[in-house]
Design a protein that fits this description.
The protein has 206 residues and is of the alpha/beta class. The N terminus is likely disordered. The chain contains 5 helices and 10 strands; from the N terminus they run E-E-E-H-E-E-H-E-H-E-E-E-H-H-E.
């Protein structure tokens, strides 16, 4: 959706193309709160206000849910290079003002937290959470010009990481840091191994 003076519009990209080697099974298919984690994260992004939800998945057939009017699929055509190829495709294809990127394996994420991330100080500026452990580039808002910046970086020294792009944005003023306090930090804890999984999202109770 185009920029309007009275509204800031953002799309979301859900990163679900990882190989999940340590987990041993596709993280996006783990059942949490009675539904696959992929579906739960799509629901949260919609509740937070995403105009369109994109999903970056591994090459091959799109995972379930395979069809929905509000979902657009991006096949990872460059496996092994991390999340940036999918992010670049979505940034180039989106006509919103910014793209909120979210890793699928953050089970305690909430629509409220996502709305905070998607609330930049001004148009053309992105936002990235920072905890005591560092920046969180896989739950961050990237302004659309980030695609052009990344293309410059690729031409100079190869495929960039989201962290490097975010750090450059902070340095140049088109990304702002959102401090995360101790109460909200669990929203950014991800699942990596089988012992991390629970059918109930962390912090929601039994």
């Amino acid at each position: 959706m185009p920029w309007r003076k009275d509204r800031f519009c953002w799309d979301a990209l859900l990163l679900a193309g990882g190989r999940s080697l340590r987990m041993g099974t596709d993280k996006a298919s783990l059942v949490v709160e009675g539904v696959p984690l992929l579906q739960l994260q799509v629901r949260r992004l919609r509740e937070a206000g995403a105009s369109t939800v994109w999903i970056s998945h591994a090459s091959g057939p799109a995972p379930s849910p395979s069809r929905h009017e509000d979902i657009r699929w991006i096949a990872d055509g460059a496996p092994g290079l991390g999340p940036w190829p999918g992010m670049r495709q979505a940034l180039q294809a989106s006509d919103a003002d910014a793209l909120l990127v979210l890793a699928v394996d953050l089970p305690a994420m909430t629509p409220c937290f996502l709305r905070r991330v998607a609330n930049p100080a001004s148009h053309g500026v992105g936002r990235i959470p920072e905890t005591p452990h560092g920046l969180e580039p896989l739950c961050a808002l990237y302004p659309l010009p980030a695609a052009a910046v990344a293309s410059e970086a690729i031409a100079m020294d190869g495929e960039p990481s989201p962290r490097r792009i975010a750090i450059r944005g902070i340095r140049e003023g088109w990304m702002q840091v959102m401090a995360v306090d101790e109460a909200d930090a669990p929203a950014l804890v991800n699942w990596n191994r089988p012992g991390d999984w629970s059918p109930v999202a962390p912090g929601t109770g039994a």
